[in-house]
Design a protein that fits this description.
The chain has about 170 residues and is mainly α. The chain contains 8 helices and 4 strands. The chain has one domain: dinb family like domain (Four Helix Bundle (Hemerythrin (Met), subunit A), Up-down Bundle). It has a two-stranded antiparallel ribbon. Strands 3-4 form a two-stranded antiparallel ribbon. Strand 3 and strand 4 form a beta hairpin. Helix 1 runs parallel beside helix 8 and helix 2 crosses helix 5.
């Protein structure tokens, strides 16, 4: 595990990211091979598909935004407006159907590490980053991300879907 330091305002967000990722990884690594083919609680998706989605779905938008902030340029909020979430999620899952469970777990872990690397680059000055055109307030966005744990919501689905699967 890489040692990182975070701006004071970022530390709670990074701590939640680490904690949520650890929970998902512990669960995913504990699943027996047969469980990965179990319907995952989303129409047509297996548990492996759900894991592939949370590891590399349209959630890469978070990384895209953080990269823009760190680069110091104008934040392009069109990345949120112009996305067809359902279509991108479906395409991302389809692209990963050939991966093994271990590979989708690795992708999830790599994506989490990338988020932590990006969060570690945010400074105290970023806490007050706001732009008018288009309107964007980083702290408000980060607070929203911190409140909604996308991976934990899907972890709940995975747990429910695999209840009773033999280890």
């Amino acid at each position: 595990m890489t040692e990182r330091t975070f701006a004071v305002w970022v530390e709670p967000i990074a701590a939640r990211q680490r904690s949520d990722d650890a929970k998902v990884l512990e669960f995913a690594r504990s699943l027996p091979e047969a469980a990965w083919a179990t319907p995952g609680g989303l129409d047509g998706w297996t548990c492996k598909d759900v894991m592939a989605h949370i590891g590399y779905g349209n959630d890469q938008l978070y990384q895209q935004l953080l990269r823009q902030v760190i680069a110091g340029g104008k934040i392009d909020t069109a990345i949120f407006r112009d996305v067809d979430t359902d279509a991108e999620n479906a395409a991302g899952v389809e692209d990963r159907r050939g991966l093994s469970p271990e590979e989708v777990i690795d992708e999830f872990e790599e994506a989490g590490e990338e988020v932590l690397d990006l969060l570690a680059q945010l400074t105290d000055d970023h806490e007050h980053l706001r732009q008018e055109d288009p309107p964007f307030i980083l702290k408000g966005f980060m607070d929203l991300i911190d409140k909604e744990s996308h991976s934990i919501e899907h972890l709940k689905q995975l747990r429910q879907a695999t209840e009773g699967c033999d280890e």
